[in-house]
Amino acid sequence: MSIYPRRVNKNIQSGFSLIELIIVITILGILSLTAVPRFFGSVGFSEFAAQQELRSALKVLQTKSMYDSSGTYCYRMIFDLPSQLIGPSTASYSPATAAASCANTIAIDAPDTLTLRESNFDDKNVTFSTSDGGAAFSFVQFDALGRPSTNVGSCASGCQVTISGEQTVRICIGSQGFVREGQC
To answer: For the segment 31-89, what is each residue's pLDDT rounded down to a tens digit?
Structure first.
């Protein structure tokens, strides 16, 4: 043990060098130009919103068909593609509307939760197209087991709804009724 105090080296510096700070700022600048707009931009938002709305409406209609034990109603989603309107054939499943549920027109009084209107997406240029084995279908309906069928087939290889705009997204309705996002 020494009686002299320890000498403190005053030349030791702590912190970052100028080069390190410039590199970090450059990396943050590059990330802000490339990655941030992908998280906060609205490119493709309308297509994904339409996909989620339609998927939800199809699942609601499918669930209603599986709860109906009478088998007198058509749980049908109409795709009026020229006017870009999608919705159920009836708004109410009461005994008086059994025949109307099998119509090929969209119920005007259908709830917004089951209907996709062009006015929701017209400023985004969102369009819809359908395919059942290569042929376009105008409606899909579900039986008591939740299985789909269309006016052109039985969705044997899956029925697909394509939603196009700034990006393209799809909904696949499998032959056994599984409604999911993505290509069939």
So the answer is: 888 776 666 666 667 888 889 989 999 999 999 899 987 878 888 999 988 888 888 88
Residues of the domain holding 156:
44-181
The enclosing domain of 111 has a CATH number of 3.55.40
How many domains would you assign to the chain?
1
Alpha-carbon distance 38 to 125, whole Å?
20
Q: What are the CA-CA distances from residue 120 to residues 6, 49, 53, 150, 179 (Å)?
A: 77, 10, 11, 25, 22
Query: Do the domain assignments include residue 37?
Result: no
CB 62 within 8 A of CB 75: yes
Predicted structure pTM score: 0.73
DSSP class of 157: T
Name the helix (H) or strand (E) containing 170: strand 168-173
Q: Examine the pLDDT at 90 and tell me if it is beyond 70.
A: yes
Are the C-beta atoms of residues 115 and 86 closer than 8 Å to each other?
Answer: yes
Which whole-number Å values give the CA distances from 113 to 27, 60, 117, 131, 138, in the listed order? 44, 9, 11, 23, 20
Tokens at residue 96, please?
A: 């008086």
